[in-house]
Amino acid sequence: MVFKLQVWTLALSFSIAALFQAILLLILVNKRLPDLVNRKMSLSFLKIGVASSISGSLIFFLLKVLDRSAWDKNLSFLRWVGLKLPTSFQYFVLDTRYTLNLILLTVLVALIGLLVYLLIAWLLKVEEMSILKKLMVKIKILKPLSETITPPPE
To answer: SS in 3 state form for the chain?
Structure first.
């Protein structure tokens, strides 16, 4: 049976299935180990979900706005609400029919999405951010904040 759906529905169905599977596995694990899932863990999942949803929405928005071929083919969601590509903005829009532009757009949007996710997770005080910070200090990306300063000898 052919449903004739758009290709994005494949990603949506995969995401829904993965979410359903995670919830089902969490319920099954909670039956065997009732103390494992607690309020602290649930709150952490909620915070991470909020941060990823906001970051993912921003990535989607940026990909549609900064993609010239989406504007040319009337695929940009902004056209659905009656907006047109401003002429002063067209210098920031990349024509993704070319490989280099597509790679540039992907890297740019991914970096912005990552930074936004990290910022929101930090603002929401996600505990796992401390693990990331320790890892970055260990591989010398960040300097430790509490370095001991010894006075010079007299």
So the answer is: CCCCCCCHHHHHHHHHHHHHHHHHHHHHHHHHCCCCCCHHHHHHHHHHHHHHHHHHHHHHHHHHHCEHHHHHCCCCHHHHCCCCCCHHHHHHCECCCCHHHHHHHHHHHHHHHHHHHHHHHHHCCCCHHHHHHHHHHHCCCCCCCCCCCCCCCC
Angle at 41 between CA 39 and CA 42, to 5 degrees: 65
Residue 121 burial (10 A CB sphere; 0-12, 13-18, 19+):
buried
Per-residue model confidence as pLDDT tens digits over 23-64:
899 888 888 887 777 777 888 888 999 999 999 999 988 887
Residue 36's Cβ-count burial label (10 Å; 0-12, 13-18, 19+) is exposed
- Give this prediction's pTM: 0.66
What pLDDT, in 10s, does the model give residues 66-88? 776 665 555 555 566 666 655 55
Domain boundaries, the chain: 1-36, 38-134
